[in-house]
Every structure is written in C-alpha cells, then in structure tokens.
Amino acid sequence: MATSVAASAAPLERLRTYASFVRFEHTLFSLPLLLAGIFSAPGPRLSWMRWVLILVAAVGARTLALAINRLVDRRLDALNPRTAGRELPARRMKLVEAWVLLLASGAAYLAACAALGPWFLRISWVPLLVFTVYPYLKRFTPLCHFGVGLGLALAPLAGYAAAHPDLAAPSAALWLGGFALAWVSGFDIIYATLDEAFDRAHGVHSLVVALGRTRALHVSAALHIVAMICALGAFIVMKAHVATVLTRAPGIALLAVLGVLLGLEQEWADDVNLAFFKVNVVVGFGLLAMVLATRAPAGF
Q1: Which residue from 207, 246, 257, 260 puts its CA 20 to 30 A from 129's CA?
Q2: Given this model, what pLDDT does residue 4 score?
Q3: Alpha carbons 202 and 209: distance in angstroms, whole number
Q4: What pLDDT does residue 296 have?
Q5: Beta-carbon neighbour count of residue 145 at 10 Å?
Q6: How far apart are CA 6 and CA 136, in angstroms?
Q7: DSSP 8-state assignment for residue 300
Q8: Contact of 231 with 36, CB cutoff 8 Å
Q9: How many angstroms separate the CA atoms of 290 and 261, rounded?
C-alpha cells in the first residue's frame, strides 16, 4: 500500500517541479494582458475552439519563455545565493527534462499558431526571438529590463490579433502593449535591486548597477508614469464605444485604482516581496477590469 502511494505521488511531485521551474503561477502576469487585448476592441463572438487555441498558444509561449530563461541563466543562478535553490542549479531537475519541457511547450505554441491561421504561424518567430534574446541582454546592456517588458508587451497585441484577425482597430491594443512594456520594465528595475551586490561582483548589467539604486528607482517611477499615460490612452480610445458619461465612470474609477497600485509599487520598492506578491500580481487584473468596464464587450 505504501509503495503504491509513493508511486502515485512521484508523478505529481515531478509536475510540481516542472510548474515551479517555469513559475507557472506567473502566468497571472501575462493572462490578464492577453485578455485585455482580446477585449480591447469590438469583434465577433469567439468560438470555444478559438478560445482553447488562444489559451494553448499563451501557456505554451509563457512556458517556453521561462524555460529558455532558466536554461540560459542556470550557471548564474547557481552562483547567486538568492537563486541557487532553483530547480536546475539545485539538481532537482535534470537538464534533459528542461529541454524536453522547452521543446514540448514550443511545439504546443507553434501548433496552436498554425491552427489559428497561416498568418499567425508566419509571425510566430517574433515572440520566439524576443524570448531567446532577452536572457542574454543582462550580459551586455543595462537596458536588459526592456527585454522582459517587451516580452510581456506582446501579450495584449497577441490577444488582439487572435480575436481580430482583420487587425481593423488596433489602437487600444497598442496602448495596452505600451502599458505592459513600461509597467514590467519599471518593475524589473525594482526587482533588480535584490541582486545589486551580486550583479556588480559578477559583471551582470542592470540599471541598478549602472545608475545606482536611487537613480534607477527614479527611472522605474518614470516608466510607471509612462504606463499610466498608456493606460489613459487605451481608455480614451475605448470610451468612444461607450455612450454616456455614467457608463464610463467604472472605467475611470478602475483607471484611478491602477494608478494607486503602481504608486504602491514605488512606495514599497524597499520590500520587493511585498511589492511583487501583494501589488504587482494585481496590476494586470486591474488593467483587464478597466478594459472590461470601459469597453463593455458584449460582442464576446
């Protein structure tokens, strides 16, 4: 009996390890952005199959991106006390398992793109290029934060394109992409403060190393101001579809909430775990709520 329980627990334990390896819970950052892009413009009602394909493409791309990052950074992770406990440096996961996960998620992403349509397959290399180049940027430039920002900025654009293949009204989605780029890049600067000493000692580039902590955080704050400007731009574009000032009020209120959340990230920058787990994870959902309240997507 004990043997059978242990045998059944083993596959579950491997699944937990794989989910931890790619930080599956961090899909909470990309999924709301993807949905915001889908709902950013009026469009036809999506079939359940298209929803499934969009979800498979999104999860596949997100898993692929994290797998690439972990594989590229595995030696740096082993040297850094903060990351030495990750699956590859801690040897809780074999290198071949990481590669299999990468290839499987990449295959799922490409298959979903092909099923969504030939155009989506033709442009599928764009996210792949961003995901592959980003992990190397910290080795060459302090602007590396914009690499992860660009990766997340693709989410609302991909969501919009998947739901609106005619690409007829992309303005709101472009503003949302700008929001994601500025928001995520700004927070990644805050996150880099955790590794300032390690990065200086090992020649890893970041704005925190290049400018010092205080000035880097000023850049982060400026980026979050830009993010709010982009959110306002999306709101202005989308409110054209709303008839009265009264029905615009929820969107305005949620836009204000979004500004408060970004302000709290800056206020709590000294406590990265608080800013990350208590605030940052809510921002994407705040943006999605603003989009839903503003655009009232009855067409979906």
Answers
A1: 207
A2: 44
A3: 11
A4: 58
A5: 29
A6: 40
A7: -
A8: no
A9: 13
Phi and psi, residue 299, nearest 5°: -70, -10
Left, alpha or beta for 212 (phi > 0: left; psi -120 to 50: alpha)?
left
Sequence-separated (6 or more) residues with CB below 8 Å from residue 228:
258, 259, 262
- SS3 at position 285: helix
- Identify residue 6 by its one-letter amino acid code: A
Q: Taking the CB of residue 171, how many other CB atoms lie within 10 A of it?
A: 16
Return the CA Rg of the chain.
Answer: 20
Tokens coding 240: 């054209």
Q: What are phi and psi of 155, to 5 degrees?
A: -60, -55
Tell me how far apart the terminal alpha carbons of the chain are, to the nearest angstrom: 50
**Is 199 within 8 Å of 212 (Cβ atoms)?**
no
Residue type (1 letter), 139: R
Token pair in block for residue 149? 């920002």
- What pLDDT is attached to residue 8? 42
Q: Do 63 and 22 meet the contact criterion of CB atoms below 8 Å apart?
A: yes
260: which 2 tokens? 């408060």
Please, are residues 24 and 60 in contact by the beta-carbon 8 Å criterion? no
CA neighbor of 151 nearest in space, from 119, 117, 188, 116:
188
pLDDT at 18: 65
Token pair in block for residue 179: 């929001």
Say how far residue 109 (Cα) sits from the centre of its chain.
16
Q: Which residues of the chain are under the pLDDT cut of 50?
A: 1-9, 244-246, 297-300
Which residues have C-beta within 8 Å of that of residue 36, sequence separation ≥ 6? 156, 159, 176, 284, 287, 288, 291
Q: Map tokens 């206020």 to a residue.
A: 267
Q: Side chain identity at 38, as an amino acid letter?
A: I
Q: How many residues does the chain have?
A: 300
